[in-house]
Specification:
The protein is an all-alpha fold. The protein has one domain. Helix 1 packs antiparallel against helix 2, helix 1 runs antiparallel to helix 4 and helix 2 packs antiparallel against helix 3. The protein is globular and about 35 Å long. The termini are close together.
Length: 94
């Protein structure tokens, strides 16, 4: 998968996290774990070794947002906006 599609998929999970955060903590946690799994697979893909700094930083921001944003001031709305651009690019590339 191209990078835009991979990160667009992560963005889908971030959207689910935001949607379920106040409604269903188990669904929120599952979406968070799926987002981390997808990010880890992307980070481990040798094609993106030139983007490791960005990918690992966004992983840190996701974890920060999930646990209150105390370290970086991250929030799910900002991350959703970040990932949205990848989803649009992936769709345009189809």
């Amino acid at each position: 998968m191209p990078l835009a599609e991979q990160l667009g998929n992560v963005g889908s999970e971030v959207g689910r996290i935001a949607r379920w955060r106040e409604k269903d903590s188990q669904a929120c946690e599952k979406a968070f774990h799926r987002a981390l799994e997808l990010l880890d697979l992307t980070i481990g893909d040798p094609r993106w070794k030139g983007r490791l700094k960005e990918l690992t930083r966004v992983r840190e921001f996701l974890c920060d947002a999930m646990f209150g944003g105390h370290l970086y001031g991250s929030d799910l709305v900002g991350l959703d906006r970040y990932f949205y651009h990848f989803a649009v690019a992936a769709r345009a590339g189809r």
